[in-house]
Amino acid sequence: MTDEMRQPLEETPEVADAIEDDVAVGAFITGGAPDSDNPEFLQPGEEPHVRTGADQPWDPEDLAVAEGRDPTPENVERARQELERDGAAAIERTVP
């Protein structure tokens, strides 16, 4: 065996290079925005903003497809009536 093969891993040039490398990996930089490692905490009494499916406009065709139906004229008409009758609740039942 040569000396290089018996050298402890901690003393290899590759490990030394890795330890000295303080450059951040761009893919892991969040820019300070909230993420799973840096969550945003709410102040006591502050309500969180929760986005739901009804936060955007829905066409009857969209609702019919979201419910798993083909956008046939009958299904689109049924979805139109549901949207007219129930409003956002029709969407919330399907896309919470």
What does the secondary structure layout of this molecule look like, with pairings?
Blueprint: H1 3-6, H2 13-20, H3 60-66, H4 73-86, H5 88-94
Helix pairs in contact: 3-4, 4-5
**How many domains comprise the coordinates?**
1
Mean pLDDT: 79
What percent of the residues sit in helical stretches (DSSP H or I)? 40-55%
**Terminal-residue CA separation:** 65 Å
Structure description:
It is a single chain. With 96 residues, the chain is mainly α. It has one domain. The protein is built from five helices and no strands. It has helices at 3-6, 13-20, 60-66, 73-86, 88-94. The radius of gyration is 28 Å and the shape is elongated. 5% of the residues are buried.
